[in-house]
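[agent] plan:
  1. take the single chain provided in the ticket
  2. run structure prediction with default settings
  3. attach C-alpha cells to the ticket
  4. add a short note for the reviewer (M.T.)
[agent] executing step 1
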Amino acid sequence: MVPAWVDGTLQPVEKLAAHERGLRHMAVSVFVISDGKLLMQQRALGKYHTPGLWANTCCTHPHWDEPPEDCAARRLDEELGITGLALQHRGRVEYRADVGGGLIEHEVVEVYLAHAAPDLTITENPDEVMATRWITLGDLHADLAQHPDAYTPWLRIYMAEHEGLILGGGAME
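[agent] step 2 finished; step 3 output follows
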C-alpha cells in the first residue's frame, strides 16, 4: 500500500492501482554520488513498468506511515545492498508521466542525496536491478540527448527540470 490522495485525502492504495488510476501518490528518489559521478541503475526486466531502462540510484514508494528517509534507506539496501550512507534531503518534486502499459506515475517525490566512498560495495538485487554504472553529469547529459528512450521518464524530468535542486550547490564535487 502506498500513500495516495483519493478525493483530496491521503489514503493507503495498492501501488499498481495508484499507477493504473494515475493517482497522485508519495514516492522517494535517491541519488548517490562519489568522486563527481552519479550511481545509476538499470531496472530489472521483470519490473512491471519501464523494465530495462536506466534510472537514478534508487526510486520507490514509502509504505503507509513509513517516514520518507526510512523508506530511502530501506530501498537502497533492498535494491543495491547499500547501507550506512548519510541521506541529505534535497527537497520535494512533483511530476506526472506516462510510463507505458496504460500506467501513469503522478508522484510527489522526496528527493535524497548521499555521498559514498569510491570503494562503495554494491550488491544488486536481480529482481530489482539488472546493472549499475557510475557516470559524470556531462556524460549523462550527452547520453540523455542521444538516447532519451534508454532512460526512465522521471530521470529525464529530474535532469531537465530539477537538476539544480537535486545535484546543485556543489553536490557533485
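[agent] step 4 note for reviewer: The radius of gyration is 15 Å.
[agent] ticket updated
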